[in-house]
Sequence to fold (305 residues):
Amino acid sequence: MCLVGGLLASCKGCEGGEVAMALSPEELRLQRIALIDSTTIQTLVRLDSIEAYDRLEDLSAEAWMLVDDSTGMVISQKNANRQLCMASITKMMTCLLAIERGNPMDTLYITEDVFIAKDSRVRLGEGYRLDHLMYEMMLTSDNDAAYAIAKHLGEGDTLRFYDMMNQKAVYLGMDSTLFANPNGMPNIHNYSTASDLVRLSRYCMRDSTFAQIVGTIEQSVPLADGRHMDCVNTNQLLKTYEGCIGIKTGFTRQAGNCLASAATRDGVTLYLVLLNSRSMSSRFKESAILLDYGFNVMKAYKEKV
Fold:
């Protein structure tokens, strides 16, 4: 029988008593994102006494979850397990799989079968390197860039890529999530929960390439023909919120205004997923309120322990 604790697993019943086995980096990564504690903070900190607590009841978002990354403590949540559309937050999974399974040097072309949304900035016939196209997809939330990546990684079959997305979701323990496209365009079969998306966010941000992409405010993306396209990140918190390190905006009429965010201050890193906020501006304002509240809570927590 193996008991896993901290950084080591002790296997009993082996010759010589116990043998310590170090967990692999991937095992540690999975262990960290699975760490969710919904009770400890409430026993140590009187949450309703923390500055900004009284502002939480006025937030328009339908659901959210705010978690301290190092402890897994849930600082605040509302309808965190309610299945909702997630809009372009979907692209976090698309980007993750592109990093894990793609060759960053591959050239992808925007063909007629992926030139679907047509409100995107990529244009029919253009070519991009995969690593560059990921910046276009994540910073400007380009829908057809996501389709092109899905087709490429699915070896011509986007449905195969959606299977890959769902297999990864199962692997990560995202039990209330289903992916039906690579970009979050309206589809009743593409949904998740704030809780599952916090788990995905924490996993993704432990990849240095992913973290670098979503933490970039502006990027000049080269095309295969030598032209360049300037990309500006849609996540305004990167400019307006001290310590923000990412990660992804989302909006459709079906999903409302959504935001997955992360911020670090004084050695504390918080992850927040906010779903179906009233407006584009409110998703940033409400996320800032929740993050401020979270840092205040963690300051009080540190004074107690």
In short: The CA atoms of residues 35 and 71 lie 7 Å apart. The chain has two domains: 2-34, 42-304.
